[in-house]
Structures are given as C-alpha cells and as structure tokens.
Amino acid sequence: MQIKDFANKYQMQADTIRYYEKQNLLKPNRRENGYREYDEECEKQLQLIIVLKQLGFTIKEIQQLLMLKGKAISTECNLSTTSLFEQKVSDLEEKIQFYQHALKVLQTLKELIEEEKYAENKAIIEELIVVFFESMQKRGIS
Fold first, then answer.
1. Distance (Å, whole) CA 33 – CA 101
2. In which element (H, E) is residue 36 found?
3. Total number of domains in the chain
4. What is the per-residue pLDDT across 10-30, written as a single tens digit (0 to 9) for each?
5. What DSSP state is assigned to residue 29?
6. What is the SS3 assignment for 63-121?
7. Same domain, 47 and 11
8. Is 29:39 a contact under the CB 8 Å cutoff?
9. Residues 65 and 14 both lie in one domain
10. How big is the CA angle at 126 (ends 121 and 127), to the nearest 5 degrees?
C-alpha cells in the first residue's frame, strides 16, 4: 500500500512515516516510479515501533532494538536487549509510583474542594501542592 493509506491505517501523518524512514526504522520497497510500497513486513515493524513508543522508548532506543533484532542471536545481543528492557521496567515502575502519588493528591484535593470549606482548607491544599511539587523536583520532573 502507498504511504497515504499506510499512514491512515495507523492514524498517523505521512510525515511521521517519512520520519521513521529517515531514522531507518522503516524500509519500504520502492516501485519503479519511486513511490513507496508498504508491505506486511512494514506493518509489523510499524506496530512494533508504536508499541515501543507507547512504552516510553526513544527513537534512539528503538533504533538500537531494531538493530539487535536484525543480528544473529548471541549472548551479547541478549545482554544488550535485557539491559535496555531492565532500564525501561525501572522507568515504568518509577512512573507508576509517581502517578499513584499524583492520584492520591488529586483525590485528596477533590475531597477538600467538595467540602466547600475553601477558607478552612486553603492551607492544607497549598501544603499538598508544595509537597507534591517538591516530590516532582526530587524525581527530576518539572
């Protein structure tokens, strides 16, 4: 299929597909007229890219994984892949912890606001925000 249909199928812009090509993440075949032709292999590759992006992998990390995917199976390849996945697991666990904390803060803020005692709860609300902000700074989130 051509780039427009391929991009539409995955609800992406054609420019995004072209960007992935420039980054050597996708390698469509070319027709005689120079048009790109996206086959089943391109679809599988794009699905993998989409999943990895959703998991928080950067373009550079995806390039690394695709390079490792193309290599012969070896201990070195396995260690590199495992190391990258371990880092992502750690990153995701940290994000989950952050979002769980954020959820508790939001729920508490909501409850305080629902009490309709803004004047009485103002100091508590401000303190919650300060504490949450400081926790974000410790995690390097701004």
1. 55
2. strand 36-37
3. 2
4. 999 999 999 999 999 999 999
5. E
6. HHHHHHHHCCCCHHHHHHHHHHHHHHHHHHHHHHHHHHHHHHHHHHHHHHHHCCCHHHH
7. yes
8. yes
9. yes
10. 100
